[in-house]
Structures are given as C-alpha cells and as structure tokens.
Amino acid sequence: MSSNGKHGVPKGLNKEKLCQKLTEEITKLKEKSCGRGLSNAEVVDFLTRLRHPRREPAGIGAKVRWLALTVFFPIAVGLLLIYARHEIVAYFVEDPCLIGSNFILSEVGRPLASCELCRNLTAVPVYDTITPAEFVAKHAYNIRPALITGATTTWTAMETFSFNYFKELYTSHPEALQAVEEECQFFPYNTEFTSLEEAFKMSPERAALKEGERNWYFGWSNCDPLVAAELRRHYQRPYFLPDSSESSALDWIFMGGAGRGAGIHLDNVAKPSWQAQLSGRKTWTLIPLPECEDICHTLKVTVNTGDIIVLDTNQWYHTTQIHPGKISITIGSEFD
C-alpha cells in the first residue's frame, strides 16, 4: 500500500491519505446512520443492495440515459484512454491501495463471521501466564482476543528499540527502505509523511516528542531479510504459541506519541496476529462485526509495556489510542 503521490493526486495528499480519508468519511456516515436508529447490519445491507439497484420502467428518461451510456460515454472513455493511457495504467498498476483499502468492497465481499465465540464476552481475557495448550484451546484460532501480561520482559528489544535505532538500521540498509516503499506497506496515519524514509528525516526535537513539536504516529511492515534478522536478535516468538505454529516473515512496527493511533478499520491479512508493547501504553477498542453486533460487545483493553495482545484483526474492527508519557513502540506478526 505504499504511496508515492504521483499520477494526478492533488498536491499535499498522497493516495494513502486519500484512502484513509475515504474510510474515515464512510465511518462517519456509518456512525451517523447508526445514531439515527439504523443497525450496522442495515447499513451493510444498504451498501450491498447498491450493487443491485432496482430498475426503473423504460421511459423518455431511460432512453436518454441509454443513449448517453451507449454513445457518448464510450466516446468519452475512448478519448480519455488515448490522451491519458500512460497515467491510467501506472495509477492502477503501481497503487495497490485502490484495491487494498476499499472499505465498501471489503465489507460487502467479506465472509460472515461465527459470532458464538464472543457471546457474553464483556472484557478481553487477561493472563499473567498461559500455556501453549491453553492458548490453543481458548484463543489461537478463533475470534476471542487475549492479553498476556509481562510476556516480553526477557526481550532485549525492550531496551534496544527506539526511533534512532530504527533510523540507523534502515538508513544503513537503503534497500530495506526501498522495499518498504515498493513491496511492503507504510502507514502515515495523521502525519504528512509519504514514506518511511521521509519520516526518518524529521528533526531530532520532533522525533523526541519535544513540547511544541508536531505529534506523530506511523507504522510499517518489514519484508527485508537482513533487517528481519537484526530485529529478531532482540525479540523471540511469543512463548505461548504452539510449536506447530509458524510465524509470518513480516514484522509490523508501529510507534509514535500520545493521541489517536490507527483509526477504526478492519485488516485484510491471512492469519491472526500478536502485537507486543515494547514501550509506552496503548488502549485498543474492539468493535464487533455487523453480523455480531447483537451478540457480542464492544471491548476496550489497555496494553502496558511488556504485554502482548493477541487478536484476529480480520474479525474485529479496531482502533487504538496512545497514552501520554513514553513513546509507544510495538512490534508484531501473524501466526498460523
């Protein structure tokens, strides 16, 4: 979903921000509709029916529309393809955000979830310790989230990972920065950054979240093997994952200061995820899917330094809020 701001995007807005803005506007519309008495299911049903609108009887208006669609519209499309073919091809080929962030298509095309497992769940279960067998039985492959406290206390990442650490690591591996741009994903959220490389160029004062400096929060996925090997020198696979489980080759990293982290969204990843809080505190709000809203509750859980949250981010809408104090740094991955 990397975005480079080319191909006719208005100045100051890259495609990532446009997609984010579209999602936020649709979310606002959904909340407004629910506030007026509509349920989530009714909103989704309405969006679904948009794909199959009712047909009006053929009359003068219908004939005019038929003429426009069969004569004038093809001419206009043909002229557009002739004069802007290179830009159009590049726009669709180079920007997977067009597909990956389409809220309506992902919601309409999503398979229905099984809601029984979150029935009567009013809080995220919290464990001081949990065995792999217990984790598999209760949480591993279903929609029930879990919080395991103190699960990262032996990781050297707790003292090692910082803004400067990541900056030095990536600037010493320029091919990894390029990979984030072309093969992985960068999430600018509410910042002006268009790439991880640009984010690492912020001033030392802003990076340190000094008073008076603009706040920031962003995230990215790493798919460079050299950087991955270095990162995994400082963290291990969570102890409660079963031996048969295989982790994704991707690392997901998010960091920044107090305020809103990620807006309300639903992920489109293949597996459930774990995320370790290495610094700071973050509160997650988990919102059930529309088909589960009458069975399951909205949940809130605060993840403190050293904790790991486990969640199927394909099955819960979620948003995060960063607490004041230390910078929030998290790393996570998917597992099967």
Automatic annotation (TrEMBL):
Q: List all membrane-crossing ranges.
A: 64-84
The answer to whether UniProt assigns keyword Plastid to this entry is no
Tell me which UniProt keywords the record has, alphabetically.
Membrane, Transmembrane, Transmembrane helix
From the Swiss-Prot or TrEMBL record, what is one GO molecular function term? 2-oxoglutarate-dependent dioxygenase activity
Top-rank taxon of the source lineage equals Eukaryota
- What protein am I looking at? Bifunctional arginine demethylase and lysyl-hydroxylase PSR-like
Q: Which organism was this protein described from? A: Acanthaster planci (Crown-of-thorns starfish)
